[in-house]
Fold each of these.
Amino acid sequence: MSHRINVLIDDQLWEDLRHIPRGERSRLINESLAERLKQKKRERLLEEMQAATCSAKPAEEDAVMLLRRQRYRLHPDQGGS
């Protein structure tokens, strides 16, 4: 589904856009906007990950020991080593 919107662009951008054939303008704008929005989303997610990393407390044991302990809890008959 397509949606028609009104946007304001500066004069220089309009001059550049006028050289693009009418049928290609919407496609160009859609592709550019989609790429920019994807970039903004990545930046936001990176900021969230960095904030979570900074606020997380360090693990008391390394990942291997944690996995072994969890595995032993799930399957105590396997010896846990």
Amino acid sequence: MKITVIDFYTADSSPYKDPISIPRGLAALGHEVELVTTGYYDHDSLFGLKVRQLSDWLAHDLKVNRPEVVIAISRFNPGISPVLRAIKAARIPLVVKGDTDGTIGYPIPPNYLRACPVSAHPLNILRHIKWRAPVSYFVKQRLEHVLLADLVVCESPGAAVNLTRVLDFWELPEQMKKITLIPNSISKIYTLPPVVSKKCHTVVSVGRWDDQWSKGADLLAGVISHVAVRKPETEFIVIGKNPEYVSKRLLKSVSSRVWFTGQMDFEETYAIVSSAQICLVPSRLESFSHVAAEALCSGASLVVTPIEALLYLAGGGAYGSIARDFSVSAISAALIYELCLWDSLCREPASIAAHWRAILNEDCIALIWSRIVEQLLTGAVRE
């Protein structure tokens, strides 16, 4: 089957994560796949995939060398809407992969508003005003992606519920049948090796700490400072860019038990995550946390904020502890509770890993993608 995958991406894209994992998985199953970039990229291949510039693809391939199916990783970005309209006009079946962590539209308040009080900052007051007026304009720009698509893929049940609620509010019930759930796949580096059964008494956090607010760098510093005092036997490892932002905000009395590695390559990160008991994710914004999913597949449990995808990965508490809100005190309480579960032998690394490896492994997710595009061509999905 001839499939085109469209996304924003750069030469820094990882073969282990979306959007690359989707076309790579489909290509491994024998499909003819090309990746189309809406940004600038000056090579004709990436990780073994054929790459086309969007402008060239629209001018030639869409009309002459037509794909059988297009998968557009749109994230409900209005900027890609003209491309989706062109695909629809060419009568090519279209699958849209959205980003429904609360950002699609009214009446779902986005996570960045839930995570911070209205009065916390003047910018936040403006965000709230923008969110509420004029609501129809901001929502309809994103809902057009649903209207144009033959299928809409969400990454977690909470994201699908968000989208369903928005469609219900705007009286588009017939569009709900387009929604399907496909989580992101996890590299075999995390899903094939034996699980480390004796985990270190360690909490690991991995993130782009230069994106300080959305990744919760300030929350991370506050939680470590709070919990390290109460759990002196626990060590913390912080991986990722700009760890200085976190380290400068730690209590000096606990800094000796916190290790900052900076940014590491995928294999080095795996070695640390696979030996830790807990992965702490203090994010205010996430569409799907690969770090959390990778930790689960290595047998660690989670401590997370109440974000759609993180609630899904924590299994409602079966595979981790969920903070009540986006505060240092709530996340700290969840982490202390999770540490107690490990101390009382209530967490079993092998069972955690077995559950999520069966769901998130590359081969399984690739088969799901292959099945839905094949069904879309035969008309089985639409029926």
Amino acid sequence: MTTSGPIIGTVETVIRYPVKSMLGETLDAGTRIGGRGLTGDRIYALVDATDRLVASAKNPRKWGRLLTCHAALVDEPTAEQSSPMPAARITLSDGTITRSDDDAVDDVLSRELGRPVRLIGQPPAEAHYEDVWPDVDGVAPAEFIAQTRVTTDDPSETTSRFKLALAAPPGTFFDVAPVHLLTTASLQRAGQLYESGRFAVARFRPNLVIRTPPGAVDFLENEWVSRRLRIGDRVVLQVTLRVPRCVMTTLPQGDLPSDLGILRTLANHNRVEFGRLGRWACLGVYGSVVQPGVVRPGDSVVLE
């Protein structure tokens, strides 16, 4: 393969999250990636049957228990937009298994989450979700938080409401963009800055974890914005944005404890400019797909 830039690492892990805000599945054989991200990623979500907001663990009081549920597709999709997509197998916190195509799935998930919900495969018109701001200075500009704040049933929370798919294809469940990348160098650097914290991949929910060479310990992705990444023989991604971080990075899941220090470390050491929107605590980058293909663990990653 002819490259037009330095090889900066290899794909270490490919991760898909079939149901928004639930834990996902590691794809050891890789998968196809196209304009809508990894095939089968965030193809289902829950919607609150009362207010029709899309359920997101970014509002932990309502939806933190989503991070105790695991979702995996029962079959690998045969194309980027298979119709219909394979069903998702959902394993609840007590080991109970349900599927997205079970007639009783809404009732099962409503009992698990303590709120009436519906599992959907297509966002409602003007779909929105809520994001609760933790007590961490510098996570986002105070002016932005004040301007987007909404009134909720818990006045002790500072909550904003955002429209889905800010920089993603319409009709998808992504908050911002369809592909999310994170390097081992960034995780290592953050861990050095907060040694008692656990900067595990699961806290950040990337699609692609890129293994960087030994000795590369820095927030490398910050410099990738507006450049392209060539992955393997075919895939080309356009890096579009750094990833602003939120309360989800601090929430307990599996054996990871609740830890505001995770987000506080990023707010203290990796706040980056978003033009007129000010400075945000970030880790990793978002991308869009220029050239689709299959991504697999072990694929080389070239910065163009």
